[in-house]
Specification:
The structure holds two protein chains of two kinds.
Chain A (H helix, E strand, L loop, with lengths): L6 E16 L2 E13 L2 E5 L6 H8 L7 E6 L2 E2 L5 H6 L2 E4 L11 H6 L5 E2 L2 E2 L1 H14 L15 H14 L4 E5 L7 H16 L3 E6 L2 H7 L2 E6 L2 E7 L5 H9 L17 E11 L5 E11 L2 E6 L6 H9 L6 E6 L2 E2 L5 H6 L2 E4 L3 H5 L6 H4 L11 E2 L2 E2 L1 H14 L17 H15 L3 E5 L7 H16 L3 E6 L2 H7 L2 E6 L2 E7 L5 H8 L6
Parallel strand pairs in A: 3-10, 3-11, 6-9, 9-10, 15-22, 15-23, 18-21, 21-22
Antiparallel strand pairs in A: 1-2, 1-4, 4-5, 7-8, 11-12, 13-14, 13-16, 16-17, 19-20, 23-24
Helix pairs in contact in A: 14-15
Chain B lengths: L1 H36 L3 H13 L1 H26 L7 H18 L5 H30 L3 H20 L26 H7 L8 H18 L1 H11 L1 H6 L4 H28 L11 H11 L4 H19 L10 H40 L4 H11 L2
Helix pairs in contact in B: 1-14, 2-3, 2-13, 3-8, 3-11, 3-12, 3-13, 4-5, 4-6, 4-11, 4-12, 5-6, 5-11, 8-9, 8-11, 8-13, 9-11, 12-13
The chains are: A alpha/beta, B mainly alpha.
Chain lengths: 512, 385
């Protein structure tokens, strides 16, 4: 990738020696950042490294304790986001700020609507939106409602919103965290188109692959400290990972050869309808054995969510059979499945995985609160509950340390996931289902989750992994099953998997 | 650890201060109204204070407060478990009628048998009233708030109907039930009342209220049942995932909540009332319970304190006309208190956006802050490079 768009003589953003303290804690400790015209500059760091703090200062959400911010060479004091917008800075947040029932046009012009007299001039607004979308090659339907369009499209709307307000410096905060692989490719193309047009982009991320694919330069922050700014062409992904984490990160999961044992999970000719009443599982068959990780690869919406919900008892199927250790758990309540060997790391950790308002210690016994030693005669036994939590917090490195009594909702995503993993590992069931277990986690946490999944496999558990991250499926699975349109269409040994071929099969193109 | 505790402390004191502040504002605004009407604030508030600080006055406060503590506990319990029991009014009414009917029809039973029987009947009636609504909700998804408001009226008319039935209705001219059997009353003995100079309706119902309070606290904080109910209340999806029966929990929560309100009804009729009138409008014990739960922060001990406060205002307020001040002043004060407590919640929510953002930042930071053991281990690793 060339840097023909980058004009190194024109710095658009300079952040000099930025220090931000919260009480005794220093979140940013002397950080420097220079972004040039036409440049994609990635900011890389683990969760909690201080990336968001830095960007929030650039966008006027918080003020630096010391240090200067220069935009186009001019020192600027950012008191609020309005100042930032005036200076030409636009931010696309990780969680979109869109009005769901409004149309694309209405969302883009919101707050700066063109008027005719006292009336809104929606025709002009629509034309403006069409113009700007044509100018940057970001095609959208100006009349579609936000609630009806895909996440990728919503992100496009957010980008257009910023451009519409005259932004020439865009901050994208974890822009790919909820996108499908295809949408990610499109976003990268869009970013290149924008920089070709003279815009600059700051990309906050912890996904190394995307940095390699899109960014020109990358600034690494670790524990609030400036580590380095590197030319992305000159470094490898593992260089980046090492800089970020501060130690050597192995991407390859160490997985000893294992002969799979007896079948633990058997799904036979499973049918189900989705919430609209449309048939989403169309006769699915699946087996998972002891000591193997079976990965389900597929594009979201092909039935993988429903498959997992039926196995875990959260949803009812219309026909078929689900056996766990020979016992039918089909259309039985969740507790029945749990008692017969099903445990799971749910896709939505905040909705299904945790009671956020409850303490970590209480969340750690979500399925076992009635059991000895945590309860005796219906009375909760606080001492063993706490002791259990103390052990889990230590063993699973749940941070901050000593968070047994903290509400689970106050932990970061990665640590919330650790609470769930700790719980399911302690549950020690024959079958472990993990759905997108590393979504939104940073490299360090991902490595950790992967290691645990493999460890469980090595202990002889049967593991069903459902993930939208192909890399994850490929590096962990002993067997990859491709799901398409409610059925498993291909079965590929993990070692022989090829990303392109899998992608094709996921799209229903090629049956192996 | 130290940091964590202080945060909890700060939040709980802040909540407490909010409520004290709301109460203060309530009295200030009440004073404003008095001033506008040209009534001496000192006289009115003086009377209010005087009337509740004598032994007799205090005994009245306790008598007045007892049913409100129960309905307050009922609503507080429902808040904790994620349902909003606006139906405490109806549960209270059916509870008091069940106790009254038992106390009238089985009036010949001995006291030690009859009184528990009355309590049981009342709690059962209240629980059933709660369960019906819960059933409508879990079976057909009918909104429990709407259903409860309607069930409050059903209870009201049902009570009036039963009060007019032959065998229950007063044989004299009063539009009320007969007075329940002496054996069903919880009044203190006449000599005790005379010796101590207590209110003539002084009764030991408050002990039941205290017992209920401890029970509620115990269930919520100490039992697996409380764990289930709270989990369903704060995240029914995670509870379901964890194998907790969500519908069963909602029914249980409503049954317990209803039983508490029903018990409140029994204590009212067996203590202070003695009989149930045919009413022309709802008495408001259940609605008062919502106020009590709100002032008491949905906490059982808070409900006791708030119930006593509510009882004091209600009793003291009834004496206000002696100094020419309108009794309605009390409604002004209570209304204002509720208003400002509600506002503090709204303000917290409004400020929440800003705070949430800061929290996210602080949370990220906190994780890297040297706070605990395991962390140090990992940062050692981190420095190894």
């Amino acid at each position: 990738m060339g840097k023909e768009h980058v004009d190194l003589t024109k710095p658009v953003i300079e952040m000099r020696n930025i220090v931000k303290k919260f009480g005794h804690f220093t979140a940013n400790d002397g950080i420097n950042l220079t972004v040039h015209k036409g440049e994609i500059h990635a900011i890389l760091g683990e969760n909690g490294a201080g990336k968001s703090t830095l960007m929030n200062q650039l966008y006027g959400l918080i003020k630096p304790t010391s240090g200067d911010i220069l935009v186009h060479g001019q020192k600027i004091e950012m008191n609020n986001p309005r100042d930032a917008i005036k200076a030409g800075i636009g931010m696309v947040h990780q969680h979109f700020m869109l009005v769901q029932p409004f149309t694309v046009t209405e969302n883009i012009v919101l707050g700066t609507e063109p008027v005719k007299g006292v009336a809104l001039d929606m025709a002009a607004a629509r034309q403006n939106v069409l113009d700007i979308s044509k100018q940057y090659g970001l095609s959208i339907d100006p009349d579609a409602r936000i609630e009806d369009i895909s996440v990728g499209m919503q992100q496009r709307v957010e980008i257009l919103k910023a451009l519409y307000r005259g932004a020439d410096i865009l901050i994208l905060d974890e822009p790919t965290s909820s996108l499908t692989p295809q949408e990610i490719l499109e976003l990268i193309q869009i970013m290149h188109k924008l920089t070709a047009d003279g815009k600059s982009i700051i990309l906050i991320t912890h996904k190394l692959k995307e940095i390699k694919e899109s960014a020109d330069f990358c600034t690494i922050i670790r524990l609030g400290k400036y580590i380095d700014t590197v030319d992305v062409e000159q470094v490898t992904e593992s260089d980046l990972a090492n800089l970020m984490v501060g130690r050597n990160v192995t991407f390859k999961v160490d997985k000893p050869e294992m002969e799979p044992g007896e079948v633990v999970l058997e799904v036979k000719d499973l049918h189900a309808k989705d919430y609209r009443g449309v048939e989403i599982l169309k006769g699915l068959n699946l087996k998972v054995r002891r000591g193997e990780i079976v990965g389900i690869a597929g594009i979201d919406g092909n039935g993988q969510t429903e498959l997992v919900e039926i196995i875990t008892g959260l949803k009812k199927g219309t026909a078929g059979e689900v056996l766990v250790g020979g016992v039918s758990v089909y259309n039985k309540p969740p507790r029945f499945g749990f008692e017969h060997g099903v445990s799971s790391i749910p896709a939505d950790r905040q909705k299904h995985g945790l009671v956020l308002a409850h303490s970590v210690e209480d969340n750690l016994i979500l399925q076992n609160y009635k059991r000895d030693p945590y309860a005796k005669g219906g009375i909760l036994q606080r001492k063993p509950i706490f002791a259990h939590a103390e052990e889990a917090v230590k063993k699973f490195d749940i941070r901050p340390g000593g968070s047994e009594k903290r509400a689970a909702g106050t932990l970061s995503g990665g640590n919330q996931q650790k609470v769930i993993i700790a719980r399911e590992v302690y549950n020690d069931k024959d079958l472990l289902i993990a759905v997108n277990p590393t979504r939104g986690l940073d490299v360090g946490a991902i490595e950790y989750v992967h290691a645990y999944l493999v460890e469980q496999r090595n202990k002889g558990k049967a593991i069903l992994l459902v993930s939208f991250e192909l890399d994850e499926i490929m590096s962990l699975s002993d067997v990859i099953e491709v799901i398409f349109d409610g059925q498993l269409v291909s079965r590929v040994p993990g070692k022989e998997a090829d990303e392109k071929q899998l992608g094709l099969m996921m799209a229903g193109g090629d049956k192996a | 650890m130290k940091q964590k505790r202080s945060v909890v402390e700060i939040i709980s004191t802040m909540r407490f201060l909010h409520i004290l502040l709301a109460i203060l504002i309530g009295f200030l605004i009440g004073a404003g109204f008095l001033a506008i009407m040209g009534i001496s604030v000192g006289d009115a508030y003086g009377k209010l204070l005087d009337s509740v600080t004598t032994v007799k006055g205090l005994s009245y406060v306790v008598v007045y407060a007892t049913p409100y503590i129960l309905t307050g506990l009922s609503v507080a319990f429902s808040f904790k478990t994620g349902v909003f029991n606006i139906g405490a009014e109806g549960q209270f009414v059916v509870g008091s009628m069940a106790a009254a009917v038992t106390g009238i029809l089985l009036g010949n039973l001995p006291k030690p048998l009859l009184i528990p029987l009355c309590f049981l009947a009342a709690m059962l009636a209240g629980a059933v009233w709660g369960i019906i609504v819960g059933f409508l909700k879990t079976k057909w998804g009918i909104n429990e708030v709407l259903a409860m408001i309607m069930f409050n009226w059903i209870a009201f008319y049902l009570s009036n109907y039963i009060a007019g039935l032959p065998g229950i209705k007063n044989t004299g001219t009063a539009e009320a039930t007969q007075t329940i059997s002496e054996n069903a009353r919880t009044l203190l003995s006449k000599s005790t009342i005379a010796d101590l100079g207590l209110a003539p309706t002084a009764n030991w119902g408050i002990l039941m209220a205290l017992g209920a309070m401890l029970l509620v606290w115990f269930i919520i904080d100490k039992t697996t049942l409380g764990y289930e109910l709270k989990a369903v209340g704060s995240n029914k999806f995670a509870a379901e995932y964890g194998g907790i029966g969500v519908n069963k929990s909602i029914l249980t929560a409503l049954a317990i909540s209803g039983a508490l309100a029903g018990l409140g009804g029994a204590l009212q009729v067996m203590g202070m009332g003695g009989r149930i009138s045919i009413f022309s409008s709802q008495e408001g014990f259940g609605f008062g319970g919502i106020v009590v739960a709100l002032i008491g922060c949905s906490n059982p001990f808070g409900a006791l304190a708030a119930g006593l406060f509510y009882g004091a205002l209600t009793y003291g307020g009834s004496k206000l006309n002696l100094v020419g001040a309108p009794t309605q002043l009390i409604s002004v004060i209570i209304g204002t208190v509720v208003f400002f407590i509600a506002i503090s919640v709204v303000l917290e929510r409004l400020g929440g956006g800003l705070r949430a953002r800061k929290n996210v930042i602080n949370r990220e930071d906190a994780e890297k802050a040297p706070a605990g053991g395991p962390q140090k281990e990992s940062s050692k690793e981190g420095d190894a490079q």
